[in-house]
Design brief:
Blueprint lengths: L2 H14 L3 H6 L1 E9 L7 E2 L1 H12 L2 E3 L2 E9 L2 E12 L4 E13 L2 E8 L2 H7 L12
Parallel strand pairs: 1-7
Antiparallel strand pairs: 1-2, 3-5, 4-5, 5-6, 6-7
Length: 135
Amino acid sequence: MSPNETRLRQLFADLERIDLDAVAAHCSDDCVYEDVPVAEATVVGPAAIRAKLDMGLGTLERLPATIHELLESGDTIMVERTEVWHHRTGERATLRVAAVFKFRDGKISLWRDYWDMRTLFGQQPASWLPDVPRQ
């Protein structure tokens, strides 16, 4: 396993535990994190990434991800995964995600997730991001 794959797998382990400080520590100072369906929510840097993750994931109990495919070429890794969002109130949401990660000097410098907004929002409890319209 390459050092980049090792770091990425640790990022997913940290996400599963909702350890957002540990997740942000995997990112370079200028890391760009983009959720493709919500381009206006793109953030840069570990502090902004942690804050964004806290907004969406901070109320979760855990977030296990199953990796189906992982392709690595140089400093780029593409991953297909399934996440299961475990809310503390018992609700679950399942989301398929494709992602591109770029690495520089051992840290993630680009994190771009591709997922379906309708699939995610349709499974979430009304208490999750209540100010965001469900369409």
